[in-house]
């Protein structure tokens, strides 16, 4: 074996296939704090694994050629693996709980991530500067801990799927790096789906489920939904449906009703949704309802503040609502509902005990003790719930009531929240929704 082909292999059985530029592996066991470099002077070379590759904690393995994990291949990464070329997995890719394995896709040219089997990564980093969209994902990959989106959009439109397991998260998603394809989240955690299309990061948010095995899948499209589901088929109160973008949000497993947050971005969302007569018109979430074959309204509210988002997020507002079904979502301009003038809702809260806006004040609610108030953060996590809300002792003061995933008496962070108010005025039941801004600084 030439020295410039494989360097610093601590233990392994490797051979070069005759009359090919492929290198076959039966056993490669990388242990200790060594750097293992696999490269070839032949630009068409492949590292073909038909046996076992194990990278232990504290070891670095760098592959400067196409990696091909065959059906019999077993790849275990508890250290650091750097992939500079294409990745194909038809076998088993996993990790153990001994290490904190991380796989780096850091090539200097476009990289394909493909294969017939799921690649299970503990941690993963995407950083490729060769093009705006350097990653072509045409298989399923899963993340158990964290995915870091540093640079490079992951194009997964063709059979691509990125799965985040129960406690998995991600960092640094932005217009520079996101998933242009399907993202699935498993578990109960609040989650920002790192999705977008073209060159725009347009996440959706929601708490995933009530059970650890619940799962939801989301994808964003910078396309007109009218050719798929005609905008002429709609509730009579809907005036104008967004004709440039939509989200697909599907519940794969579970029974939970989610509070969904969609994002508005001046680069992709039509200008009509930022400049309209708010006396007669409002922006609301709409969903294509398969049962009635028409677009229907979902009770929701849009914030009028710049939302707190991930690094580099270009969106400016959030549209939040508790949805009654799943499938295709977008936003629409609708006739503004006549709100009863029985109550006045003050939607700014600064709980600093200065006597001004220290509580979420609903003036007049004492007249209607048959009421409930629910408050959700932008991920759809319920942070407060109360029955018989009033103006004196049963009020929201900017702290979680501990009934969800937020600890009791924990001071909630500054940001935009969503409320649902239901009450009986003696004649009928009324539901009112809107946003609430908490300033805890």
The total count of strands amounts to: 41
Q: Radius of gyration, rounded?
A: 26 Å
Summing up helix and strand content along with how strands pair, one would put the structural category as mainly beta
N-end to C-end Cα span: 63 Å
| Proportion of residues in extended strands | over 45%
State the shape. elongated
Largest sheet: 16 strands, mixed
Helix fraction bin = under 10%
Taken together, the total number of domains comes to 3
Provide a count of the helices: 0
- Average pLDDT across residues? 86
Low-confidence stretches: 1-12
What's a concise summary of this model?
By secondary structure, the chain is mainly β. It is elongated.
Relevant terms:
about 450 residues, mainly beta, Immunoglobulin-like, 3 domains, 16-stranded mixed beta sheet, eleven-stranded mixed beta sheet, 41 strands, disordered N terminus
What do these coordinates show?
This protein is mainly beta. The protein folds into three domains: 1-172, no CATH class; 214-337, no CATH class; 344-438, Immunoglobulin-like, CATH 2.60.40. It is 0% helix and 47% strand. The chain is built from no helices and 41 strands. The strands form seven sheets. It has a 16-stranded mixed sheet that branches. The protein is elongated and about 80 Å long. Mean pLDDT is 86; it is low at 1-12.
